[in-house]
Specification:
Order of helices and strands: EHEHEHEHEHHEHHHE
Number of helices: 9
Radius of gyration: 18 Å
Shape: globular
Strand order of the largest sheet: 3-2-1-4-5-6-7
Helix content: 40-55%
Structural class: alpha/beta
Largest sheet: 7 strands, parallel
């Protein structure tokens, strides 16, 4: 059933990994801006909670690492939305914290399957539908860790670097169809996820959690972690007509870290 039609104020938006964290804030922001939104996530309970919270959001369980799930997701989203104007590739996992020589190759491949292969497959299948939009936008969630490297997080950093190249390539391939593609590179984002990451870093480096947290804060010009709501607002802007000349860009949102 069609639940929206494309125009500047009422875009049809698919967000992956939107049940919690940054993805949930992105969903909230697009709905607040008048968009009709479809959210996928591996977390069925989280999706149920999101549906209860935001009226009109359509959801579907999807594991980005499984091609069969992705192949079912895109038709479902397009049918529910009545088309597709904006694709937000937010799904990704942090992966293991270990030096390269100690990295579990299965864990490495798990990160690549979700962060790179999943994003590739979702985008590949979404492109024919985005070509039908008068002003389509692809947004890919990368990371400051992809711009600068990330000790003991080689799988994560490598995948996020690859996503930047993917976004730039998409921009070149799809510009003729008036489809824009950009990547966002957040720094340290407040929330439960960064707490787990910092705990893993402390363990890998043999330091206290307080020490690694203080260091993460010390390298930022603005002395706070990034608010997920700010990332959501950036997504809405990038997808809007106000950003119609922005494509192929890596947009940092990191409180100006010295690692930038």
């Amino acid at each position: 059933m069609e639940i929206g039609k494309a125009n500047k104020m009422n875009q049809r938006v698919l967000i992956t990994a939107g049940a919690s964290g940054i993805g949930r804030e992105i969903a909230r922001a697009f709905v607040a801006n008048g968009a009709t939104v479809f959210v996928s996530d591996i977390d069925a309970t989280g999706l149920d909670a999101l549906s209860s919270e935001i009226e009109g959001v359509v959801t579907k369980v999807c594991d980005n690492s499984k091609r069969s799930d992705v192949e079912a997701l895109i038709p479902a989203a397009v049918e529910a939305l009545g088309g597709l104007d904006v694709l937000v590739n937010n799904a990704g996992i942090s992966g293991p914290t270990a030096p390269v020589e100690q990295m579990d190759p299965d864990k490495w491949e798990e990160v690549m399957n979700v962060n790179l292969n999943g994003t590739f497959n979702i985008t590949r299948l979404a492109i024919p539908h985005l070509k039908q939009s008068p002003a389509a936008s692809i947004i890919i969630m990368s990371s400051l860790g992809g711009r600068c490297g990330y000790p003991n997080r080689s799988a994560y950093s490598t995948s996020k670097w690859g996503l930047m190249g993917f976004a730039k390539t998409l921009a070149l391939e799809l510009g003729a169809f008036n489809i824009r593609a950009n990547a966002i590179a957040p720094g340290v984002v407040s929330g439960e996820r960064i707490e787990r990451v910092l705990e893993g870093r402390a363990k890998a480096e043999g330091k206290t959690l307080e020490t690694v947290t203080a260091f993460a804060m010390s390298i930022q010009a603005i002395k706070r972690f990034v608010d997920p709501k700010d990332i959501a607002a950036l997504c809405v802007f990038i997808a809007s007509d106000a950003a119609k000349s922005i494509s192929g860009q890596i947009l940092p949102i990191d409180n100006y870290s010295v690692a930038s």
